[in-house]
Amino acid sequence: MSLHTHQSSPTPPAPEELDVRSLPHSGRHDIIFAKLDQLLPGGTFVILNDHDPKPLLYQTEALWPGRYAWSYLEAGPLQWRVAITRAD
């Protein structure tokens, strides 16, 4: 009689979350762009913000059309969490 154990595939680690609420407004985009630049294709990180980051979405699309996919995980009114995944 042999015993077989079924091992499930490991759960992928949760994406890194970058809380930009405490960062100076003037430097937020530069910090986020640096994180985006470090993402490998298929990689994801989450930004946590105190307002809808739509201007950042528009700027990202203008600079890198189609490179990043955005997914709102939480949409206000007190905080926004957005998962950003590198598509290419």
Describe the secondary structure blueprint for this structure.
Layout: E1 16-19, H1 25-38, E2 44-49, H2 54-63, E3 68-75, E4 80-86
Parallel strand pairs: 1-2
Antiparallel strand pairs: 2-4, 3-4
Average pLDDT number: 88
What percent of residues are in strands?
25-35%
Question: Could you name the ranges where pLDDT drops below 50 across 5 or more consecutive residues?
Answer: none
Number of domains: 1
3D architecture notes:
This protein has 88 residues and is of the alpha+beta class. It has one domain (16-86): 2-Layer Sandwich (Translation Initiation Factor IF3). It has two helices and four strands, in the order E-H-E-H-E-E. It has helices spanning 25-38, 54-63, and strands at 16-19, 44-49, 68-75, 80-86. The radius of gyration is 17 Å and the shape is globular. The chain starts with 15 loop residues before the first strand and ends with a strand.
Short description:
With 88 residues, the chain is of the alpha+beta class.
Identify the notable features of this structure and list them briefly.
single chain, 88 residues, alpha+beta, Translation Initiation Factor IF3, 4-stranded mixed sheet
